[in-house]
Amino acid sequence: MLDANVGDHGLSTQDRAWLHARAAGQPIAAYREPTLADLSAVESLPRTYIACTGDPQVPLPRPASRSSEAGHWPMATKPAGLAALLSRIATVPGG
Prior knowledge:
With 95 residues, the protein is mostly helical. 41% of the residues lie in helices and 6% in strands. The protein has 6 helices and 2 strands; from the N terminus they run ααααββαα. The protein has helices at 2-5, 13-22, 29-32, 40-43, 74-77, 79-91, and strands at residues 50-52, 66-68. A two-stranded parallel sheet has the order 1-2. It starts with a helix and ends with a helix.
């Protein structure tokens, strides 16, 4: 599934092996099941979106997002940068 649907996104042979050993497929129901009609209960929760700017398949990020100069799999291709970004978001107000 990884090879058929995503493209290389800068993945090395080692990155692909790492992902194949650890990744799980996305359940198809996530794409087929409708979301709740009323999301007002979650609208007030704080959230941050991380957009991987090297991923041509991802639409423009929502407001208040952070960006990572990585493709679709930053945990494999840019793990230190992703960890630093997540740490900054978690520890600094406004990230």
